[in-house]
Amino acid sequence: IADRAVSMGEPKRGAIVLIRLPSDGKTIYVKRLVGSPGDRIQMVKGRLHINRKAVERESLVPVDGVARYREKPPGGAAYVIIEKEGDAGFYDDTAVFETPPGHYFFLGDNRDNSADSRVWGFVPDENIVGKAFFIWMNFGDVRKTPALSLTPETVEAEPGPTIQHAKEGRAGKTQPVTARRPSVLEQGIDW
Which residue among 2, 126, 134, 164 is least enclosed by CB atoms within 10 Å? Predict the structure, then answer.
């Protein structure tokens, strides 16, 4: 795979990847790789199926009333997805997508609100820019960023980088605190 930001070898299922939109080759999207060349991908009642088998999915505690699940695809690292419309969203039932040679299939982690391969099709090898490994800025509501306990058993938040938030100090003063989320490599994505 040539012309990448960083030489990274063959992309692996479950990795978060920067890709160029197939329709224009310029717009960069960040999506999760779920299908490699030769894979058969389908959504059936909101569940991801790879090669005719449902991907393992565990329910997590909802956040703000939105369903969350941890998916564990075969041969890939586990990751967290959200389903605002449950398993009844517009793209929760699809035809089978047979991934051609030299192409990949990507999904967004926000399954009911994501333009991804279900919309614009397969991504050719040459449109893969590189592997995402940290978030530079977050313009969302940082108050909704969960504080984390850094033991593997208690990290329930979706994987990501460092989170900065304020914490009430003993003297009643606000002091900056940095809680580190596990890196991509610590989550078991060795790609």
Answer: 2
